[in-house]
Amino acid sequence: MTITPALRWGIIGTANIARAAFLPGLRAAGGTASAVAGRDLARAERFAADNGVDRAVAGYQSLIDDPGIDALYIPLPNSLHAEWTTRALEAGKPVLCEKPLCGTLADTERVLGVARQTGTLLWEAFVFPFGEHMRVIRSLIDDGSIGELREVQSGFHFSIGRPDDIRLSAGLEGGALLDVGCYPVRLAQELLGPGYLSAWAVRETGGAGVDIETWGTLGYSGGRRLLLSCGMRRGYDTFSRLLGTDGQIHVSNPFHPGLDDEIVLHPVRGETTRFPASTGEPSFTAAIRHISAAVTGTEPPRLLAADASLPTARALHDLAAAALGSDAAPST
Known about the structure:
Layout: E1 8-12, H1 16-29, E2 32-38, H2 41-51, E3 55-58, H3 60-64, E4 71-74, H4 78-90, E5 95-97, H5 105-118, E6 122-124, H6 132-142, E7 149-159, H7 176-192, E8 198-206, E9 210-219, E10 225-231, E11 233-237, E12 240-244, E13 247-251, E14 262-267, E15 273-276, H8 285-295, H9 305-323
Parallel strand pairs: 1-2, 1-4, 2-3, 4-5, 5-6, 7-10
Antiparallel strand pairs: 7-11, 7-12, 8-9, 9-10, 12-13, 13-14, 14-15
Helix pairs in contact: 1-8, 4-5, 5-9, 7-9
């Protein structure tokens, strides 16, 4: 049995998702939360003490340069992803950057160029493709349980209560499409492929100049499609349906499944079958476990940003342009 050495992780920033999602996954995967960096050292020290991180560091660059750190998790506001991911890659530190990788297509292209040039490993924090539930879903599709997959209907909604939430700021590249609409887009990419042919969307604006709700579609070859809906003003909802010629698959939460979530197969002929959507581990666990193995060389890296992130960024760009009334063709 090969034992993967524990990576010493550094966290750039004190975002809530680091506390609520990354750190539980890191602990379950056997990694070490070695340090957290903040612009405000006192705040970083409180975060470290409250969340079992070994130490706090003043300043993001100090953490990047720290020889006691093997890999970095970046949960900063979208507008800061490009700068600090680039700095980390140029320093040779493997990175797991929160989604979206960047807030704009141009920044995404630049960051991916740096990743290719430096050869430093980079992942975008779509962790659901690593999950066991996605293996079950792909297996059901591949074995013909619903015939040909024709349509993905997927949404991601939640409610923001604070008017100063950074996701309501256009200056910080917030908004529903970038924050959570990216999930249905990536799900369709996983199941229908990266090569969409058309993009259409409508949005409602709010906050400080962001989309608070967006709905639309990506069209694929042969009339296949993604129908997506996302927003920041109703109860938490990630329900998704995969519709085929001979049945449907319903997934209560394909993105961060918990113990109460399930995958339900509804064939046209035959009985309904239910599968658990969670193994009981935190949703980040499988991804972090793989990253640790890839960084230490015990397995080849997969789902790298250099291979997977550009189609998602292009789709988000084209959906946003369509929602603004642009008649531009899909980007190439």
